[in-house]
Design brief:
Helix content is 62%, strand content 3%. The strands form two sheets. The chain has a two-stranded antiparallel ribbon with strand order 1-2. It has a two-stranded antiparallel ribbon with strand order 3-4. Helix 4 packs antiparallel against helix 17. A hairpin with a 2-residue loop joins strand 3 and strand 4. The longest helix has 36 residues.
Amino acid sequence: MDDMEKTIRKHKGESMAVSVETSVDWRGRPCKSNKHGGMTAAVFVLGLQAFEMMAIAAVGNNLITYVFNDMHFPLSKSANIVTNFIGTVFLLSLLGGFLSDSYLGSFWTMLIFGFVELSGFILLSVQAHLPQLKPPHCNMVLEGDNCLEAKGYKALIFFLALYLVALGSGCLKPNIISHGADQFRKDDSKQSKKLSSYFNAAYFAFCMGELVALTVLVWVQTHSGMDVGFGVSAAAMAMGLISLISGTLVYMNKPSRGSIFTPITQVFVAAITKRKQICPSNSGMLHGSQLPESALVSSSNVRNLRHTEKFRFLDKACIKVQDQMQTSESPWRLCTVTQVEQVKIIISVVPIFACTIIFNTILAQLQTFSVQQGSSMNTKLIKGFQIPPASLQSIPYLMLIFLVPLYETVFVPVARKITGRDSGISPLQRIGIGLFVATLSMVSAALVERKRRNSALDSNKILSIFWIAPQFLIFGLSEMFTAVGLIEFFYKQSVEGMQSFLTAMTYCSYSFGFFLSSLLVSLVNRITSSHSSTQGWLGDNDLNKDRLDLFYWLLAALSLINFFNYLFWSRWYSYNPSLSPTSQHDSYAEDLENHSHNSSKHIAAHDNNIP
């Protein structure tokens, strides 16, 4: 893992180390272009992506049914258990990204935590199979007040198994994406152009895993029992690990670089220490800015970043203090321009990251309340066959396995001719389109829930479960734009040694979204119950007594506000020119031009075209 070539460049008497990172094979030897990497290697990672998603989706998307019916937790508490679990999965992706970039490397991180996740699935299956590890059987809808809630060692085993899955899956997720993307060399124009295609392929694998989980595996859980369903998830996870291991000989592995937080901390410490210094008007006087143009891109993986004007207070970390002794300053007092620009990039992407939190709060509803919504509807498709409510979530993925290839083969080539970008549209434009469409999903959900509730209360009529299909379809379309755009954006903005960690920030957005969902549910219940004699909008186990439609309208309003907030921050954001090589037609100038012209024109012409 520690094999790395280092080149020392000297310019104007200053000695500055510029790392030239060489990808290595499984034995630590430099990779060969004709034997390692490319789509051949990425396919094995995509196999892990599909099987791991199949395993975790089958558990996560139907978990509320198991928690409510088998563990006997109240409905609102069950929803919070699910959202907290999924939120923890994505929050732990930061740990996985940190361990990968700093110490283990992506391959070993995936392998170790893949087995942790597998052990969690096995323990869940064992508990679901043994009656003595669960509360006595009871119908929560009819006898909710008399049902015994899981407590003591039964609850302990359940949460231990659940969070073993969360730990394993969380540490896997960012590394699956980054390790697959690392198989494409950015100095090779042909492979570089395939990077956006890889992200679409990764989302296609994600959709396939979700689709199988929400149809086959959920059907198995419903008809053969949750113990068998969890067992099938364990088998799928084992298949994913086999796929990962099978590609060992052809992977390009990026060596770990030590703690990724040390250089970041050094910038803040140096900037604070020199806070009374005055930044020079000429950025060429800053330490490390004297490198020649040819040194700006030192390798396919590592580049020295050009100075930018944002967050000028951080530039003070690059000011050299002249003294008579001519002693060299500590790295905690003097940093390079590249170090400072890396920190600026991390700060700059935070608003973009924050704008996707509400989007993932909407996703949380589709995996919790929308499943319960389906449970109170007519699930009969044909005589003798009923649709498991959790399987409704397969509808968007069934659509997307056809839509994603069409996006790649039809939309991208057409958009490429118009914009000149290899990816068709920029990641920021892609994210924004998805954020707007997500609002329509909640509008659809609110309208359908109002109709379902009124039909049940006024005419005692049960609507078909297919009435809630549109909200899943609309959100699936929005997810294709936002989820893939966000991953591509973070990976392309990632800097030396931080690919996995910045990719993990994508999943951290999911985490905050699901935690926000739990917070919103609790706040809405508290506020609405204090102003009425009822238990609140979401306080009852019976949706006919709740006001889920009003909760959906609240989310639609928050989503629309969030979309306009995103428009502001996407206009504000600017790429570091060193991360936008002109060879890929994603130059800094092109991005600025698209931000300044396309945003205003296209928003007026069509709501979906945004910067």
